[in-house]
UniProtKB/TrEMBL annotation:
Name of the protein described by the UniProt record: Glycogen debranching protein
Domain Alpha-L-rhamnosidase six-hairpin glycosidase: 382-521
Classification via Pfam families: Bac_rhamnosid6H
Length: 784
């Protein structure tokens, strides 16, 4: 094989600025990282190893994945001095001294004083390529010219993704061989057309293959190892030498794996540059400037995270996965949150692609409008969908439409929306009270009943359906959905509001149904040492004994979803403020965010905290909202440098898609107040800054797709008793509605000229309209 270019693969200043690092020696294997890619990705330990772990595919969720299959358990390099002068057997590069995470690649750095060397291992997964590029830079610290013998060992584990058994797929043992003329170690699964090819930027001198051949670590599974030896690699005194290795896979044929290998070997410099430029584009999209520079950095990293979740399986589709390492496939529930956070940071097309994938899979699996919960990259649906997910999906479709203005997309989605609403209010509402039955986000075991989140998101879905029908020319349908939404909203605010508690209930269920489960819940809470939960449920049990078992009533289990009426704006302001005040106490809020349960008070999650942040912002409680956003951000880097864990502060998936919702959505759509209706070419700007921010700005915000496309820059500042709002739209034809707080009696100028409001509201806010908006400055001086 021809030796390829040794051009340095450098990040460049734009991405170098985002490097996050930590010492790695002594880290737990649980401190994982991802080398992201849309076709392949690599999961390993920050200490340099490749541990066996995982519960979906037992012990196999790490390594190199090319969905719907896994390629490698891991790889290792051994270095030794060459020739007769070599006085030591050499060393495996096992435990790194430091780990460095960049937006799309990673580095492990090793000190090898016994060899007089330092080593840097760097890896990246090119876009749209079924492989991985790994480089080792070896630096001499001995002060002498030398030659090294290198052994690169790759351990395969060609095996199927979780839930593949539904297609009758069974994992076979891997078989391997060396191909000296091609410079490759080649392996295949004996029972399936799954292949991997491993080689370097130079021929190997010798090698070995064996199922019992291991490097420094044993790994589970049915894999086989290939060791490739590269002799007399020259390293100048005080200088460095680099070797690059390429791993290519295919779940179709060996020839395809070889073709990918050749592409990686010949074009990796170009592929690096393309990915680098694309990530620079992500950094340049929706550029936020706020006084809190740490939160600003977290915001920037969350933009990169979005790209880590893109899972592209050509035979099935492309869309946002949920979390690494355990949930890399597609979910209905997760995406109905995550895609909203994706919209303001340039993810308009990806949001549409993900919704289309979920809708298609749901149609194939259910065919009745019900939206699936979980779709494996095998193409099989693991859960046909909880009740809440269909309603939540419909709400998400409408928000995506508002940002994209893509009427063709809406028209394509609308038949499924109508089927979904019919499913919710017919099949899932057998008693006809408008409260759909079935599990929601929190699956209260044994209480497959009428839950608050399903009810609230159905209310939101009906409102969305009404507006969709209006846009698509169905006025009767619009009126019917609006009427149902009004009736359902009244029922939730009546039957599910607990006046004595100042909170919304979790569920509506019969006394008998709760009584049949309460002892189980109490014993479980007692076994967990959750005394708060034991006390609350024992009080509930005492109340049950005096009630008619057939009585249906509201129940409070204190799960975080009781925030959904505030999150969606369903709650009247007086109820919302009472509930939010209590949700902000230590009964519901822990050191890292909102508890999953105010009874148990032990686990916190980015989504429970994120919904709380959105709920606070919905009622213009921006200081409180910012406090919850900062609680999410406070966990940044605790497990993976550059990331936020799913479970707060530092466990669960080390990166989770729906985290973006709790950070981006309240800051961009509520604090800065960016609310487009792209199909109408209108933009509402409703800035409501927290008191901690006297200045906030955002640039390069994408609005609309196709003919509706535009781009926004917005800056809000407060000084000398006045507020100044500057904004610019790149393209003409859009109107702006500027909604200003406490401006009923304010002096307002537009581009230096005094202007009068188009409307004044009871809360003292005022609305100003600007037709065919371009670049403008608005100054607001409020009366003392």
């Amino acid at each position: 094989m021809t030796v390829t270019s040794t051009t340095k693969l450098n990040a460049g200043p734009a991405l170098e600025a985002y490097r996050e690092s930590r010492p790695a020696r002594g880290l737990s294997w649980k401190d994982l990282y991802i080398t992201p890619g849309n076709r392949t990705y690599l999961i390993g330990s920050q200490n340099g190893g490749f541990p066996d772990f995982g519960h979906h595919v037992k012990l196999e969720m790490g390594g190199l994945w090319l969905h719907p299959i896994k390629l490698l358990d891991g790889f290792w390099l051994h270095a030794a001095d060459s020739g007769e002068a070599a006085g030591a057997p050499g060393e495996w590069l096992t435990e790194a001294d430091s780990f460095h995470n960049y937006p799309f690649f990673n580095e492990h750095r090793y000190a090898l004083p016994g060899l007089g060397l330092e080593a840097v291992r760097r890896q990246f997964c090119p876009d749209d390529a079924e492989g991985l590029v790994v480089s080792y830079t070896l630096r001499d610290t001995s002060g002498r010219d030398r030659e090294l013998d290198l052994r690169f060992l790759a351990r395969t584990d060609l095996s199927p993704v979780w839930f593949s058994e539904g297609k009758g797929i069974e994992d076979g043992f891997d078989e391997g061989r060396l191909s000296p003329e091609e410079g490759l170690f080649l392996a295949r699964d004996a029972a399936n057309p799954w292949h991997v090819a491993v080689g370097a930027d130079r021929p190997f001198a010798s090698g070995a293959v064996g199922r019992e051949l291991f490097g420094p670590h044993w790994t589970a599974g049915k894999g086989v190892s290939g060791e490739l030896r590269y002799e007399r690699v020259a390293v100048p005194a005080g200088g460095e030498s680099e070797i690059r290795l390429f791993v290519a896979g295919s779940y179709r044929s060996e020839e395809e794996a070889k073709q990918t290998f050749r592409r990686l070997a010949n074009d990796h410099v170009r592929l690096w540059d393309e990915k680098c430029r694309r990530y620079e584009g992500i950094a340049a999209q929706t550029v936020l400037t706020i006084p809190d520079k740490r939160l600003q950095r977290v915001f920037d990293w969350v933009k990169f995270h979005n790209d880590w979740f893109v899972r592209d399986v050509p035979e099935i589709g492309r869309g946002m996965g949920a979390g690494h390492p355990e949930y890399p496939w597609w979910f209905g529930c997760d995406n109905s949150y995550a895609l909203l956070g994706l919209l303001p940071v340039g993810g308009l097309s990806m949001a549409q692609e993900t919704l289309a994938l979920l809708r298609k899979a749901s149609d194939e699996a259910n065919g009745n409008g019900r939206i699936i919960h979980e779709l494996s990259t095998s193409g099989l649906v693991a859960n046909p969908g909880n009740t809440q997910e269909t309603a939540h999906f419909i709400q998400c479709v409408w928000e995506v439409f508002l940002w994209t203005g893509d009427t063709a997309f809406l028209r394509d989605m609308y038949p499924g929306v109508k089927r979904g609403l019919a499913w919710l209010l017919e099949e899932m509402d057998p008693d006809g009270d408008l409260l759909p039955e079935g599990y929601g986000i929190i699956e209260i075991e044994g209480l497959n009943v009428e839950l608050i989140d399903s009810a609230v998101y159905t209310w939101s879905a009906l409102n969305a359906g009404s507006r969709m029908a209006e846009v698509l020319g169905e006025p009767r349908g619009a009126a019917a959905y609006a009427d149902l939404a009004e009736r359902l909203g009244a029922k939730i605010n009546g039957d599910l509001w607990l006046e004595d508690e100042g909170l919304y209930a979790d569920a509506m269920a019969s006394v008998g149904k709760v009584a049949s489960r309460i002892d189980t819940y109490i014993e479980r809470a007692r076994s967990m040492g959750a005394e708060h939960a034991v006390r609350d449920m024992e009080a509930m049990k005492a109340e049950l004994s005096a009630l008619d078992p057939e009585l249906e009533r509201a129940w409070l289990f204190k799960n975080w979803v009781i925030n959904t009426p505030m999150e969606t704006g369903l709650a009247p302001r007086d109820k919302a403020l009472r509930a939010l005040d209590r949700m902000g106490t230590d009964e519901f809020t822990g050191p890292w965010g909102t508890y999953l349960s105010g009874m148990y008070r032990d686990q916190m999650m980015t989504i429970s905290t994120g919904v709380q942040a959105v709920a606070e912002a919905r009622y213009d409680r921006m200081d409180e909202s910012l406090g919850f956003v900062k609680l999410i951000a406070s966990t940044f880097g605790l497990r993976l440098p550059g990331s936020i864990s799913e479970m707060s502060p530092d466990y669960g998936c080390f990166v989770q898609a729906w985290t973006v919702y709790g950070i981006v959505w309240p800051m961009l759509t509520r604090m800065l107040g960016i609310q487009p209706s792209a199909h109408e070419r209108t933009l509402t700007l409703r800035p409501r800054l927290p008191r901690a921010w006297d200045d906030a700005a955002v640039e390069q915000v994408e609005l609309g797709l196709g003919e509706a496309a535009n781009r926004l820059a917005l800056a809000v500042s407060r000084a000398d008793g006045a507020e100044t709002i500057r904004f610019a739209l790149d393209r003409p034809g859009w109107s702006v509605a500027l909604d200003l707080a406490d401006a009923a009696d304010a002096e307002v100028t537009l581009d230096g000229e005094a202007v009068a409001p188009a409307a004044v509201r009871d809360d003292g806010s005022a609305l100003y309209r600007i037709a065919d908006a371009g670049r403008h400055e608005v100054r607001v001086r409020r009366m003392p």
